Fold each of these.
Amino acid sequence: MYTAREYVLPKTLEEAYQLNQKKQNRIIAGNMWLRFSSGSFGQLIDLSDLGLNTIRQTETEFIIGAMVPLRELEKHPELNAYTGNAIRDCVQDIVGTQFRNSATIGGSIWGRFGFSDILTCFLAMDTEVELFPSGRMTLADFTAQKPDNDILVNIILKKTGLKTAYRAFRYTATGFPVISCCVSKGDFWRIAIGARPAKAMLHILPDTAVLSSAEDTALKELLDKTIFGTNSTASADYRRHLAQVMIIRAAASLEV
Ligand SMILES: Cc1cc2nc3c(=O)[nH]c(=O)nc-3n(C[C@H](O)[C@H](O)[C@H](O)COP(=O)(O)OP(=O)(O)OC[C@H]3O[C@@H](n4cnc5c(N)ncnc54)[C@H](O)[C@@H]3O)c2cc1C
């Protein structure tokens, strides 16, 4: 558990950003992960007053505020209609309903956690992040970057007509995923594999690639390029096998 000297609610992004430049200060979102930190912080910067808890849409994109709780993603009719329920599927097994009422998409994406269902899912879709003050970049670029002192403002899901399916394997209903896979199809296949146990990795393949059986060359090559690791939960070989099954199932579900 951590301690903090002061709790602040900035009224503008500029104010939040300035406070976040001090090494001892921390942004607090749902506090579900942060609460496991130890040590003492200076100021806790709560983003709750910045209006980042809404999901808006335009003709071309969904704009999801960083402070939107996971439960809101799970229940959002239009987001789930657009993603073929992939968003609901990636969120619904995370801990429990009360937990998902507090944990936010911003905390999940910012953390770039190796086990993240959410990062895996959004990476396979056409997603950008909006940072203050750096502006927009693709989620893939953001994931590759080391965390800095910007503020994650919005997660932007582009309406590019992708069909998407999410699959993960867990030993227990609400435990961490042993492997997570998200497959999207549009002009290309976009395939993200997470919980390897490292953070999600994105592969882009031509839409002509066949991913229907373990014998398919495209699938074998994709799995060969993916780095799977061994930890106390599962071996690298087992994770590779699970990923193969999940990708085949997810891809098949998009063809019906
Ligand atoms: C027991 C447990 C089990 C979990 N299981 C899963 C799981 O199975 N699958 C899964 O995908 N996830 C899982 N998670 C992660 C969870 O879903 C959230 O991602 C996590 O709790 C962080 O969200 P939060 O809103 O609580 O962020 P916080 O804990 O408040 O913050 C997390 C970090 O992000 C920073 N941060 C937060 N928001 C911003 C922002 N807008 N800009 C800049 N920095 C920011 C904070 O400073 C902090 O460093 C689990 C977490 C816990 C604690």
Amino acid sequence: MKHVKCEICGSDNSNAVCSAKCPDGTSRENFIINKCEICGFVFVNPRPDKDEMRSFYFEEYYGKPSRIMKIVANSAISVFSFLRKRRIYKYKKSGKLLDIGCGDGVFLNYMRARDWKVFGVETSESGYKLCEQKKINVSKELNFQGESFDIITLWQSLEHMESPARVLREIHKVLSENGVLIISAPNINSMEYAIFKKFWFHLDLPRHLNHFSVATLKKLLQKSGFKVLKTEHCSFEYNPYGLMQTIMNTFTPEFNFFYKFAKRNKTQGKKFILNMAITLPSLIILAIPAFFISYVFSFFKRGGVVHLYAKKNS
Ligand SMILES: [Zn+2]
């Protein structure tokens, strides 16, 4: 474990605001998030070093869903990819796209089929291999010197980065003059976190090293040479399910049980039947209320995730 200073203002003056264990049971350690007393940025401190972090991105992290869930998962992926494409098309309808933290590459695959030239960065071994299988131009490092991208996206990945400021500096070098950077990240200023704290689906310690609010993300972007064009709070892709899973985390024996079952077809295995017996009726009861409540939260700019669009200052 190593101690870090605030990434945004460099201050060493931060205090613990919440603690939680890794939702996958990968470690028994209780991880702590601190809030910077100077700028309000929230981050994991102390945190595992680079080698220790690898164990939290295990082989099944981007696993395959079960056969039953595959139909649901594939439909969801198509809808979510379409919604991401719509966010991009507000600015550009063709060109070169770089997705940083591209995971298993499904979104890049979708955009490539729509004539975009696609590139990805993925540091996890499991995600990297899945991108290679799809023949996506993927790299483990953000080194595209000499390239110039029209759109650069980070869908729920900046919160994973050891140094988001360094990543933004690198992005600044490869984003074209009229290019647009789209960042989607969990919102620590959300009602979900305010109410549920350690049960929040998007807390995901220690993988989510950085916990942004709109204010701190804007500060970081401005410091890195970007101008924020727009902020959006509604997200059908992340908010309704995030709220539902957060609520279920307060009463199911296993944390993120349905998420792990649906996405990876791999749960911790203990009390599987009990977890499932609690989860299935909860999904039916919670689906519609969670949908509406998450939109009310978003309307008041307190939804589970935020999207920021930015371009270079110069
Ligand atoms: Zn700070």
Amino acid sequence: MPNPITKKILQELQAVVGLPYVLTGDVDLSVYECDAETLDVARPDCVVLPANTEQVAKIVKIANKYQIPFSPRGAGTGLSGGATTIMGGISLVLTRLNKILKIDENQKIAVVQVGVTNVSVSEAAHPFELYFAPDPSSQLASTIGGNIAENAGGPHCLKYGMTTNHVLGMTVVLPDGAIVYLGGRTRPNQGLDLLGAFIGSEGTLGIVTEATLNLVPRPQAVETMVSYFSSVEDAGQCVADIIAHGVVPAAMELIDGPTLNAVEDAFAMGLLRSARALLIVELDGPRTGITVHKEIVEACSHKNKVMELHWAEDLVTRAKIWKARKSAFAAYGRIAPHAYVLDGVIPRSKLAEMLRRIGSIAEKYQLTIANVCHAGDGNMHPCILFHRDNADELRRVMLAGREILNACVEFGGTLSGEHGIGIEKVSEMPELFSDSDLKAMASFREAFNPDGICNPGKVLPAVKNCGESGMRALLRYSIVDSSASLIAKGAF
Ligand SMILES: Cc1cc2nc3c(=O)[nH]c(=O)nc-3n(C[C@H](O)[C@H](O)[C@H](O)COP(=O)(O)OP(=O)(O)OC[C@H]3O[C@@H](n4cnc5c(N)ncnc54)[C@H](O)[C@@H]3O)c2cc1C
């Protein structure tokens, strides 16, 4: 069991960051009890908000001295429960590390503290015609630290790559409090590639405090198309055909009929309600190349019986097209108060088949499931819409979610494209990885996090020394347990 946080420990933490930055009140703690994955709720014992790397290192040393678990946290927009303090302890919030330290126009890099939001890096680089390419839909709120920990993606990562492709180096506080620099650009880039191992490790190997980021020049031209199809099969085939013709668009996003109608209900944007799929294709690069690619995209659309297609003629229309995609999650709020957003990946060619499977899972469990997909790379976000107070519905949500993830693995895909494993998908990991695979990952984690106090219980199923025994009672497990008995009785 994790040790309790005594008055003496609180005083030591306050001495590091100052009295206002150690929170222990009930209302304060409730703000940090989960991230945007609201099925797993566990309150921290205290919240600590450091202002710089040295303070982070001192807090981690105190946590080590008293063997208190701690979980790094950015903006808390994560969708897999990664920042949730499932064993209590300290929620270590990095949002006060909010300075852009340098934009170097010549080297095309930004050096930032990790509590800055994703979008603020691109805003700071804008005067130099540069930007930070990874663009999660949460970019107005999510932090660079959270993006690094989750290896976040976004619509434009199809062409430009994920966060890992744009981080050159970073300062990290290891789980024992040591401060190290990983990667290159401001230091020699030799030795073991620990930078790669840390990006996407979901806060289980240490706390990133500063990062050197790659900036990309703004493209000469951008063309954005919205098109409508009478079936997701046709839209899915259009996506496959475009790629097969050697065109890699900057982004290729698909939303299904229920999502399209939810967005139209909420924002009245003039979308074609009778369509069963809406596809956005964005091309960017040198003007001459784009003209050729536009013709290919149009030809593929017509071959797949497109109902209507429009190219944005100005910035306002382009912004409106993207609003249809980026406001989808907000629009779901009109259908149900809670959404369980899944993040499976499947081979692009199986998109339509997988959407059909999701439809039959929705029918089986009598649930509403709407879909948004980064169609270009097969990353799907089925959103199960529900009411958390309805216990029976909640059980069905959990079962349907599990069945969708298993189907992704069955289709030759994987459990997560960009939202991470966190606590949400930890029990599915053995579906994808062998015992030896999991053991190798656990040994690596143990080398950096031997006491298991740095973000415990995340990513990997329980292994020795992981300290799992102190896990708080999570709704997820009570639901899964009672569901198992329902399945045994043949309820589904
Ligand atoms: C509406 C909405 C849309 C979204 N769209 C996308 C999308 O398009 N693409 C995408 O990839 N994700 C998306 N997400 C998920 C989420 O925004 C990302 O995972 C994001 O990277 C999380 O950043 P955060 O600052 O909120 O991190 P948090 O949620 O606070 O933390 C996420 C994880 O990172 C760890 N962590 C945080 N900071 C640090 C640090 N400094 N050092 C080490 N570990 C740290 C935490 O322990 C946790 O495991 C979306 C979420 C929402 C709510």
